[in-house]
Amino acid sequence: MLENQKEKFNLPDDVIYFNTSYMSPSLKEVEKAGVNAVKQKNTPYSILPKDFFNPVTELKKLYASLIDVSDYNRIACIPSVSYGIATVTNNITLSPGDEIIVVEDQFPSNYYAWEKLAAKHEASIVTIKKPIEGANIEDQWNQEILNAINENTVVVAIANVHWADGTLFDLAAIRKKTNLYNALLVIDGTQSVGALPFSVEKIKPDALICATYKWLLGPYSFGLAYYGNYFDNGIPIEESWSNRLNSEDFSGLTKYESRYKEKANRYCMGESANFISTPMATKAIQQIIEWSPERIQEYCHDISHEALKELEGLGFRIANQKNRGNHLVGVKIPDNININDLKEKLSQKNIYLSYRGNYMRIAIHLFNTKSDFDRLLKQIKMIIH
């Protein structure tokens, strides 16, 4: 079992931060890497041609290891989830009547591009709504997604964990059903990868897109994308010089090369060397691999499960263990509690979390403790009574 790791972060002692799903705090080592990278710009003569490529390769290898990918050339550096999804939609052609499946209240970066693509080709967006009642709403939701996949389905675009309420989607079952109809599976892993184990080898998605500033503990405006063999010969959004063959030879850059580097390398954003974000993301992923997502899940469960049971006893609704991760828990607020009052009272006590609709989103990490949950419960009880 991992021990508390708050000493590796710069969070103030009087702050309880349950909001990594909004944005992670920086690890001290990640901050140090970023500061050192900023300072390096003072001596540009120390930045060599190999520095445009070698650190990026190291980062891709680390990330490939984290998500169980055997070939790091299937990883691309991107600036955002919207960029990664746009790369996908840029390489899909639909026909009238085709269907793209999404879920209700999907994060906009994994919706707008699909809406645009569907309108362009007279295809349809099929939105699977979350059931509003039943013994196990999350099981029903997963089943309705599976039921919706049919011969008209071309893409299922979905998250691993729903950003608003923490629902864990059954990607293995969804992949099995999409395979029956040769439909693509495109996953937004931003709210799970880094804290929840994920295996590309097991799920075999066609694309997995992640921003780094949440559970990957990295910088903002940076992300990592996996692209499967469907996209091996696709068209990138932009034509970066570094994505072409032989780009390492600076003296020959104007010997224009029509061929891209293999696999996902063609989809890397321009200036993907990113001398600040790359070392920061590298340090972060090194630390995550050392901890391991499996042990992060164990720790989050250990410090939270008693408090979550007590919240249920107070009338809050929480999904069954099998339908959520331990790192991101959607807690439905009872109708008799004023959400605005709850927000104000908790923020006054330096307890930070997010609210999405009638859900309180508790995002747990290794800097949290059982004591944090005791303080959260104390304040909630005071509000109720």
Notes on the protein architecture:
With 385 residues, this protein is of the alpha/beta class. It has 2 domains: 6-27 and 292-384, Aspartate Aminotransferase, domain 1 (Alpha-Beta Complex), CATH 3.90.1150.10; 38-290, Type I PLP-dependent aspartate aminotransferase-like (Major domain) (Aspartate Aminotransferase, domain 2), CATH 3.40.640.10. The chain is 34% helix and 14% strand. It contains 11 helices and 13 strands. It is globular. It starts with 15 loop residues before the first strand and ends with a helix.
Q: Describe the biggest sheet?
A: 7 strands, mixed
Q: In terms of per-residue confidence, which ranges show pLDDT below 50 for 5 or more consecutive residues?
A: none
- Shape verdict: globular
By CATH, the topology of the largest domain is: Aspartate Aminotransferase, domain 2
In spatial order, strands of the major sheet run: 2-8-7-6-5-3-4
SSE ordering: EHHEHEHEHEHEHEEHHEEHEEEH
CATH superfamily grouping of the largest domain: Type I PLP-dependent aspartate aminotransferase-like (Major domain)
CATH class category of the largest domain: Alpha Beta
Share in helix: 25-40%
Write the layout of secondary structure elements.
Elements: E1 16-17, H1 28-40, H2 54-66, E2 75-78, H3 81-89, E3 99-103, H4 112-121, E4 124-128, H5 137-148, E5 153-159, H6 171-180, E6 184-188, H7 200-203, E7 207-211, E8 223-227, H8 277-291, H9 293-313, E9 317-318, E10 328-332, H10 339-348, E11 351-352, E12 354-356, E13 359-363, H11 370-384
Helix pairs in contact: 1-8, 2-8, 9-11, 10-11
